[in-house]
Amino acid sequence: MNCIRCGAALGQGAAYCHRCGSSVKGTGPGQRYAGFWLRTGAFALDAVILSPVLIGAVYLFPFDPSDAQMITTAVQGFGGNVRDVMLPWMYTAHATEVAYFTLAPYFIFCESSPLQGTIGKYLFKIQVTDLDGRRIRTGTAVKRYLGRFLSMLSWMFGFVMAGFTRRKQCLHDMIAGTLVVRRKPAR
Q: N or C terminus of the chain with fewer C-beta within 10 Å?
């Protein structure tokens, strides 16, 4: 059995890790981290489920092209028709912003609930825990969700990190001190 926080080998019946001092509760033989593709599948399922909400939110908060005019006027010195180049990017940025703030309550509530994950995570049999294997609190779920912004800003590299970090953590998991693990079967 290994410590879920630092990975140190633990003796039989150990209650705390000898290296980092974290509780061993919630860890045990067979505790496995959810990898990149499993997490991607869960997110894709959530995206399909939430797409009507996102479409509605984008229509509820439409993009105002006059904002594009203000920005393109500021950069006219670069020559050419900057507006034609910038407009598609600005529509995409606006839709991303609306989606980010619209989905926040869903992810925060679900991940800090007894379900310990979104509908997609539940169906893929994975859950979000703290480093000691316990359910996360609302404040931790907020920190984790806000950390996703940094995962996105790095050209999505923060999400790809789950494919090669030791505990399969994304950047926002490291920021919030969380893990995504495979749910243990009910006994």
A: C
Nearest-angstrom CA–CA distance, 92 and 101:
14
Say how far apart CA 134 and CA 114 lie, in whole Å: 10
Give the model's confidence band at 11: pLDDT under 50 very low, under 70 low, under 90 confident, else very high: confident
R_g of the chain, CA atoms, integer Å: 20
Q: Give the span between the Cα atoms of 8 and 29, in whole angstroms.
A: 13
| 82 has a pLDDT exceeding 70 | no
Among 17-21, 58-62, 99-103, top mean pLDDT goes to: 99-103
**Cα distances (angstroms) measured from residue 41 to each of 3, 121, 135, 140, 145:** 27, 9, 22, 23, 18
Domain match, 50 and 11 both: no
Q: What total of structural domains would you count in the chain?
A: 2
Domain membership of residue 23 as a residue range? 1-31
Q: What pLDDT was estimated at residue 76?
A: 60
Overall pTM > 0.85: no
